[in-house]
C-alpha cells in the first residue's frame, strides 16, 4: 500500500557553473514524513524548491503519481495546487486578511464555491489554532502565528504532499514550539510531509525517514534510528557531532 | 492699485463667472477621467512587461514577449519624451492624413491624448511598484498554483496600487494643471477660459490672478482627498478578535464531507513509526 507519490529521478540543478544538486534520486511514499537535514549550502532548500517547480530543473525529472511534471503533460499550476509549500519567510499575502489568505487559492485555483471555501478555511485555521485571528492582517500577527496561517493556507488546498522549507528557522525561539506542535499533529495524522529542518528533535521523534544531504548529493538516508543514531557515512557523523555540540 | 485689482476681478467674475466655473468643471472631468484611464493603461503595461520568460518556453512565446516588451518600451519613450501639447496637435490634426477621418468630438481626442500620456508615465511607476514587491509574494502565490495573471491580479497589483498611490496622486495633480495645454486644439478648459476672457476684456492680470487661485485651490483639494484615500487604503490599524465560541459553532455545524487527505492515510499506513 506504500504508493509512491513523488519520485525524483536524476535531478541536477546548476546555478551558472555551480552545481547545487548532483544527480539526486529519491522517493516519497504516501504517509512518509521525511526530514531533510544537512549543512547550509548542501542543497536542501534547492531540492525542495525544485520539487515545487519554483526552480527549473537543469536535468532530471519529477514524477507525481508516476506522471512526469516537467514534461509538460501535467499542468504545472494543477500540480502545484496538489503539492503544498510552507516557506521559511511565511510569504503570506500582505494585502489579504488571515481568512482571505486561506480562501483565495481555493477560489481562484481550485474553483471551490465561495461558502465551501470559507468553511474549509475556517476548518484548517481552527486546526492550527488561528481561528480568533481571521480578521487580522499578516502584518499584525507574530511570526509563529504567521507560520501557522501559512500551514493552514497550504492545507486548505488539500494537497497530497506538504513541503516545509525550514519552517521554524525565521522564528523567535519561543515561537518554534507552536509551529512544531502543528507539524507533529499533522504527522500523527499521517499527512505526507517533506521537511527541510535544523530541528534534530523533530527529525528524530516525528519523521519516519531521514535524508542527510552533503554537497548536493544524498549522503545517507533511512529511518531516523539509523541515520541519526548509527550513521554509516562519516560526513553524517561529523555533521551530527557538530550539531549536538551546539545544543 | 490693489483695490483696482479686486474691482476688476469682481467685474470679470460678474460677467464671466459661470464660464470660469464651466472651465473648472471641464478641467476636473478631463483630468480625472484621463488619470483613471492612464492608470488602467499603466497597470496593463505592468502586467504584460512582467510576464516571466522561462527557458523551457517555445520560441514563439519568447519572440512574442520580446516584441510586446519592445512595443511598450517604444510607447513609453515616445509619449514620455515629447510635449503633450505637440502630441495633441499631432493626433488631432494628423488623423485626417493617416486615416482619412477626423475627430468630431473634442472631448474624445482630449481624453485620448491625456490618457495615453499619463499611461506612459504610469507604466514606469507600475513597473517600479511591481519590482518593489517582495519575491516571496510571487512565490507564495505560485506555490498554491496561481498563474501569472492570477498572481498579478489578486496579490501583486493590489499591493502595488497601495505603494504607488503617492505617484498616482502626483500624476493627477500634474494632469489638473497640464490639461491646460489642450486649449491648443480648442478644448474649453479652465485655462482656455482665461485666453478667451482676457482677449475679450483686455484685462490679463485680473484673470490670471483668478486662474492662479483657482488652480491652486483645485490641486490643494486634490492633495487633501488623495491623502484621505491613502489613509483609507491603509486599512484598519487594529483588528477584532473573533469570539471563538461563535465560530466553533459555525465550524461545528458544518459537516466536513470531503475527507482531508491526511486522514485517509491513517488507515492504510504501513511504514515505520517513529
Count of distinct strands of chain B: 0
Percent strand of chain B: under 5%
Q: Which value, in Å, is the CA radius of gyration of chain B?
A: 27 Å
How does CATH name the architecture of chain B?
A: Orthogonal Bundle
The helix/strand order of chain B is HHHHHHHHHHH
Highest-level CATH class of chain B: Mainly Alpha
Determine Rg of chain A (CA atoms, Å): 18 Å
Structural class of chain B: mainly alpha
**Helix content, binned percent of chain A:** 25-40%
CATH superfamily of chain B: MetI-like
Neighbour order of strands in the largest sheet of chain A: 6-7-8-3-9-10
Inertia-based shape of chain A: globular
Question: What is the helix content of chain B?
Answer: over 70%
DSSP strand content of chain A: 25-35%
Given as residue ranges, the uncertain stretches of chain A (5+ residues, pLDDT < 50) are none
Report the sheet with the most strands of chain A, covering strand number, pairing sense and barrel closure: 6 strands, mixed
What is the first-to-last residue Cα distance of chain A?
39 Å
Query: What's the number of helices of chain B?
Result: 11
* Most extensive chain interface and residues per partner: A-B, 67 and 48 residues
